[in-house]
Design a protein that fits this description.
Blueprint lengths: L7 E5 L3 H13 L6 E6 L15 H8 L4 H7 L3 E3 L1 E5 L7 E5 L6 E2 L2 E2 H10 L11 H7 L20 E3 L2 H13 L4 E4 L2 E6 L6 E6 L4 E2 L3 E4 L6 H6 L4 E3 L8 E7 L9 E5 L4 E6 L4 E7 L6 H9 L11 E4 L3 E3 L3 E2 L2 E3 L5 E2 L7 H14 L8 H27 L6 H8 L4 H13 L12 H10 L16 H20 L4 H8 L6
Parallel strand pairs: 1-2, 1-13, 2-9, 4-16, 13-22
Antiparallel strand pairs: 3-8, 4-5, 6-7, 10-11, 11-12, 14-20, 15-18, 15-19, 16-17, 17-18, 20-23, 21-22
Helix pairs in contact: 1-6, 1-9, 4-14, 5-14, 9-10
The structure holds flavin-adenine dinucleotide.
Length: about 500
């Protein structure tokens, strides 16, 4: 059957989702002669938060041919080696979820099993001491990985902290240079074809009517096309992720430039600290059932390290996901597709995935249902697995108070319950290879939150306790030595990618 190619795409929304999707499609669809148009309204504006990322952004930017140092300079970005959870497990406690692989594998058994075995004997070095990124993050150091065999320095994995509006502007310049056409305007009406329920056109307040074969809804929480026009429905996950509000404010930076995101547990929810070159982003994520907005605002403003640069921005959200990310000829990407809350910085990642998976299932004008179903299955899987990872943080703490008690006692998703049961036996993490978070990510957060397995993987009995301990001590010594050779984060940026003063 001859192809009936998609000739035009209309992206509605110009936040991080809109411009990242435009950049991705303009790159991967080049040569197909498909016309891409993006409509955005500066009157409505963007959400303006979303500044911490995770490592897959690095390969995504590289796949688009973006020069990382250039992006860093133009978005006031810094490097990120992981997330520190401070006062999370309980007040006074701190652990890091570091990026990248750690330790070794012996006959398919991960080093974490040997670590559990040593801990059972009371002789394990601290878990973090095995991770080059955790050790470097504690010392505010950074460098990119180097090609040195048998060195932990080759395993440095990193992400970026970026200024959200500068990122959108950067991606806009990239996409416009690849023939994406931008239209300033507010969508007033979305027309749906009565015969099949597909979107037929959008009309702007100016009266201009825009028709396209494929529509991408990047209108943020509004979901103007996917929900407003197509009534797709939303799966509410508030019972597992009860935070529904955030206050965000930038402040002046004081002190050296840290190389990790900080997530600080609060009586109700948590507070982020994201260091950029020109300022620090802060936000308090909380549940309106347990704390009032004014109190949240005071808590945030009372805990800033430097002068607030503007009034806090108040945001409301409902955690969950759209029932279908792709419905008829409309694909929702970004906040219009769902929002899990920012604890593990997964919002921008889900945008990347939404755009990239669309490239893999790119339709022709017949819009085969099998492709639509394939896309939706994939995105559902990714949202649900990330959800479980974040819920695990909330549900496994020893913090006092009504909010944290609720989180500890809530009924968990079956998929998470099953995973925790397996972990509680022999410390096993069984996951699908396509999941975002690795076995070691799970291990670091569950161990950081003091979830203790009854025993360790039986196959880790293949070497003596004394040899196991020696092996782990060797790793921590090498990691400490290598981390000491890494420059301070501040110096690395000054030498490689300092942004001009704002
Ligand atoms: C509190 C909070 C913290 C977050 N922190 C992180 C983080 O640290 N890391 C991370 O990866 N993600 C984070 N996120 C998620 C991240 O902010 C979003 O994924 C990202 O900004 C994408 O937003 P968006 O483009 O979907 O929506 P928006 O930024 O809201 O953009 C919507 C666009 O649609 C346009 N629009 C809307 N209606 C119309 C209309 N009628 N006509 C024309 N245009 C219209 C608007 O003008 C705008 O351009 C956070 C989110 C929240 C709420």
């Amino acid at each position: 059957m001859p192809l009936d190619p998609v000739r035009s795409i209309a992206i509605v929304g110009g936040g991080t989702a809109g411009w990242m999707t435009a950049a991705t499609l303009s790159h991967y669809l080049k040569g197909l002669g498909c016309h891409i148009r993006l409509v955005e309204s500066s009157e409505i504006g963007t959400i303006g938060v979303g500044e911490a990322t995770i490592p897959p952004i690095i390969s995504h930017l590289a796949s688009l041919g973006i020069d990382e140092n250039d992006l860093i300079r133009k978005t006031q970005a810094t490097f990120k080696l992981g997330i520190e959870f401070k006062d999370w497990t309980q007040p006074g406690h701190s652990y890091i979820h570091p990026f990248g692989p750690t330790g070794f594998q012996r006959n398919g058994v991960d080093f974490t099993a040997y670590w559990l075995k040593c801990r059972e004997a009371g002789k394990a070095p601290p878990l973090e001491a095995h991770s080059i990124t955790a050790v470097a993050a504690r010392q505010a150091r950074f460098m990119r990985p180097v090609d040195l065999a048998n060195s932990p320095l080759q395993h440095i994995a990193y992400a970026l902290h970026l200024d959200a509006s500068l990122l959108a502007a950067y991606l806009r310049a990239y996409a416009e240079a690849r023939c994406v056409m931008r239209t300033e305007g507010k969508v007033r009406n979305v027309a749906v074809r009565p015969s099949d329920g597909f979107i037929e056109s959008i009309t702007l307040e100016s009266g201009e009517r825009i028709e396209a074969d494929l529509y991408i809804d990047c209108t943020g929480f509004r979901g103007l096309l996917i929900e407003g026009a197509l009534k797709t429905g939303y799966e509410d996950w508030t019972r597992w992720l009860p935070c529904d509000r955030a206050m965000a404010v930038a402040c002046e930076r004081t002190g050296p430039l840290s190389s990790h995101t900080l997530a600080m547990g609060r009586e109700v929810g948590w507070q982020w600290r994201i260091p950029l070159q020109h300022r620090v982003g802060n936000g308090y994520v909380y549940s309106s059932h347990f704390v009032k907005d004014e109190e949240a605002r005071d808590i945030l403003l009372g805990s800033l390290e430097g002068r607030a640069l503007r009034d806090p921005l108040a945001l409301r959200f409902t955690t969950g996901r759209r029932r279908l990310s792709w419905n008829k000829n409309c694909v929702a990407i970004g906040l219009s597709a769902g929002f899990l809350e920012p604890l593990e910085s997964t919002g921008i990642h889900m945008i990347q995935r939404g755009a990239f998976v669309l490239v893999n299932f790119f339709p022709d004008r017949r819009f085969r249902q099998a492709d639509i179903d394939g896309y939706n299955r994939r995105m559902t899987f990714e949202y649900e697995r990330v959800r479980d990872f974040i819920v695990a943080h909330y549900s496994q703490t020893r913090r006092e108070g009504e909010f944290w008690r609720y989180c500890r006692e809530m009924e968990l998703p079956d998929s998470l319950q099953e995973r925790l049961e397996l972990f509680r036996g022999y410390g096993r993490i069984i996951r699908d290879p396509a999941e975002l978070f690795s076995e070691q990510s799970w291990f670091f957060i569950l161990t950081g939150q003091d979830v203790r397995p009854a025993s360790y993987e039986p196959r880790a009995a293949d070497i003596s306790p004394a040899d196991t301990q020696r092996l782990l001590e060797q790793i921590t010594e090498v990691v400490a030595r290598c981390a000491a050779t890494m420059p301070p984060h501040q110096d690395f940026i000054a030498q490689n990618c300092a942004a001009p003063a704002p």
